[in-house]
Design goal:
Blueprint (H helix, E strand, L loop, with lengths): L7 E3 L2 E3 L7 H32 L4 H16 L1 H10 L9 H21 L6 H29 L5 H29 L2 H16 L1 H4 L18 H6 L4 H12 L2 H30 L5 H30 L1 H22 L6 H28 L6 H21 L1 H26 L6 H4 L11
Antiparallel strand pairs: 1-2
Length: 446
């Protein structure tokens, strides 16, 4: 691969370099597309749960919504198989799926705005939220597969830090701005604002080719690259066989277990915190969503500055052990202090610190997943691993009502401690090549 930063001029026409041409372009493209994804997720993982809590919906109802919108993510391996099997190769193996999913997401947001359900219309909200989540999941599968296909392995820690930093910024914007519109404007304006914010960073997928010489649009000049043609599976059986071969090994199976337990941790947390802020702290949705937004910005900045370096230098397994232990201690402190008596200052400081540390654990997890995938079935295998996290999230969120009934916030937060430690324990059996520091692969040097 080359890293020529100059743009190409073809027949007197300005043309941006392809994704494979430039390391800086890879970082920028991944960051912008994850920023768009974060905007959508900020809507249905932060803003809407907070809106439901402030408008009197109980923890169980919020947990049901979070569980429902997590369902498409738990089925990402099905989407991955379709993305691996079918492609419009003149535009690259993944890019047509990426652009299509983004277009559908924008139209879904517009439809949500037109319908404008009340907080009490939980079934309608779940239906729309699940549809939006499904479109975001398709975008995520296609983007992750493109990253695995085209990024040198020694860049994965760094590019994941940049992408997750972009996603954090998107979550911050989506959570805070959408919550503001929900509280002070209207539901319709909130959905239209989300669609507008999403479309701006998502536009980068339209401008950047995967490899030189490919079509920008179906009607443009261009041709299928030899690499895309040779890598595309020619039958469903081939996709299934190769995915099973990749996944039914020790390291991928351990990472699947890691993802499930981490997802359970996040599902419990996402159902618990909006309810605690609304019902115990008497916060409105804008205040909690703004705090979540600030937390995403801080964790994203930490990822930009040291996250990628630490993941590659220490190894994702070692960094995962460290961050999970800190997260467990931080939640234990909350149980001992905040459940008895808390203040706005303590809750805010605790929340921001927790978010920064758990971001480091998540960065380790996604880097591990990308390390064990193989390019020709990257969409299916990586989607199955990350989909197992969504399955865990659905299980965790779905259990929130039961945990709340048997022990309130103490039971909920104790379960969050157990699941994050169980997740980290899965990393103990990983091979040094998967969990250790990054090593430059000679095949990735261009």
């Amino acid at each position: 691969m080359t890293d020529n930063p100059d743009v190409a001029l073809s027949a007197g026409t300005f043309k941006l370099p392809a994704y494979t041409d430039n390391a800086q372009l890879r970082l920028a493209t991944g960051t912008f597309l994850y920023l768009a994804q974060g905007l959508a997720q900020g809507l249905f993982f932060v803003a809407i749960p907070s809106w439901l809590a402030v408008n009197g919906q109980p923890v169980g109802a919020i947990g049901s919504f979070v569980a429902a919108i997590s369902l498409p993510w738990s089925l990402k391996f099905i989407v991955g198989a379709v993305v691996d099997r079918f492609a419009f190769l003149p535009m690259g193996r993944r890019r047509a799926w990426l652009v299509g999913a983004q277009t559908c997401l924008i139209f879904s947001l517009i439809a949500f705005a037109i319908r404008s359900p009340l907080p009490s219309e939980l079934t309608t909200i779940i239906i729309f939220g699940t549809a939006l989540s499904a479109m975001t999941a398709v975008q995520d599968v296609a983007l992750d597969a493109m990253i695995i296909d085209l990024t040198p392995k020694n860049e994965l820690g760094k590019i994941n830090a940049f992408m997750l930093g972009g996603k954090s910024a998107g979550l911050a914007g989506g959570a805070a701005l959408v919550a503001y519109f929900l509280e002070f404007q209207s539901f319709a304006i909130a959905m239209i604002a989300t669609a507008a914010m999403f479309s701006i960073p998502a536009f980068s997928a339209i401008l950047i080719r995967e490899r030189p010489g490919e079509k920008l649009f179906p009607w443009n000049e261009g041709q299928t690259s030899d690499e895309s043609l040779s890598a595309k599976p020619d039958a469903w059986w081939h996709v299934l066989r190769e995915t099973l071969r990749v996944l039914f090994r020790r390291d991928p199976l351990l990472i699947i277990g890691l993802c499930i337990f981490y997802g359970m941790h996040q599902g419990i947390f996402e159902a618990t915190m909006p309810a605690f802020a609304a019902q115990e702290m008497q916060w409105g949705e804008t205040r909690y969503a703004s705090l979540a937004g600030i937390g995403y910005l801080i964790s994203g900045a930490a990822g930009f500055l040291i996250g990628g370096w630490a993941t590659d230098k220490l190894g994702p397994a070692r960094l995962g052990y460290l961050t999970s232990g800190i997260v467990a201690c931080v939640i234990a402190l909350f149980i001992l202090v905040a459940l008895a008596s808390t203040t706005d200052v303590f809750f805010t400081t605790w929340y921001l610190f927790y978010g920064t540390i758990v971001f480091g654990f998540y960065l380790c997890m996604v880097t591990l997943g990308m390390r064990v995938c193989e390019k020709h079935v990257a969409a299916t295998s990586y989607a199955l691993m990350m989909g197992s996290m969504a399955l865990g999230l659905m299980l965790g969120a779905g259990s929130a009502g039961f945990l709340d009934e048997i022990g309130g916030y103490t039971a909920l937060l104790t379960a969050a401690i157990v699941t994050i430690l169980a997740s980290a324990a899965m990393g103990l059996g990983l091979s040094p090549a998967t969990g250790g520091p990054a090593v430059l692969d000679p095949l990735d040097q261009g």
